[in-house]
Design goal:
By secondary structure, the protein is of the alpha+beta class. The chain has one helix and four strands.
Amino acid sequence: MRIDLSGASWFKSSHSQPSGDCVEVAFLGDHTDNVGVRDSKDPAGPALVFPGEVWDDFIASGVWKH
């Protein structure tokens, strides 16, 4: 399934590194709770899309802090 991300409002993670290793996130608001994730160095490149509940579980797990 393809999801149109052209109108997404992307923002950098508050945990992005000053070295430029950044992740951008967009809450898609596409009648679902989908969340897009992409590499800020390649905004035209591929993005991952996760269901909102999966994103919530990821954030709650704290694994991204390591």
